[in-house]
From TrEMBL:
Residues 13-85 form the MIP18 family-like domain. It comes from the Bacteria. PANTHER family: FE-S PROTEIN MATURATION AUXILIARY FACTOR YITW (PTHR42831:SF1). Pfam families: FeS_assembly_P. InterPro entries: Fe-S_Maturation_MIP18, FSCA_dom_sf, MIP18-like, SUF_FeS_clus_asmbl-assoc. It comes from Neotamlana sedimentorum. Transmembrane segments: none annotated. This is FeS assembly SUF system protein.
Length: 108
């Protein structure tokens, strides 16, 4: 399948797979399972916008984590461009973590 025929749903799955390779330095769980990714938008030009949060506003990786997310998503061949927007609305809570993340951290 060439890049020109890739659909946004498939691209979304590739993006999620990449997001699952990025870990929060303080919690040994990937940022997707942690619930730090609020939304992933992909338009017809294959531009990606990711709305994400951090565990706390003064998170030690507040400067570097969004850049790492951008760089890794941009490295997907079918992605034209990627932009990360950080929000603290709503603020992150442990409730946003997946069952898998909670299980991995011994919270279930």
């Amino acid at each position: 399948m060439s890049d020109s025929t890739i659909n946004t749903e498939e691209l979304g799955e590739k993006i999620v797979a990449v997001l699952k390779t990025i870990f929060d330095p303080e919690i040994p769980v990937d940022i997707y399972e942690l619930g730090l990714i609020y939304d992933v938008f992909v338009n017809e030009d294959r531009d990606v916008k990711i709305l994400m949060t951090l565990t706390t506003p003064n998170c030690p990786v507040a400067e570097t984590l969004p850049l790492e997310v951008e760089e890794k998503v941009k490295s997907i061949n079918a992605v034209n461009n990627a932009e990360v927007e950080i929000t603290f609305d709503p603020p992150w809570t442990q409730e946003l973590m997946s069952e898998e993340a909670k299980l991995g951290l011994g919270m279930l």
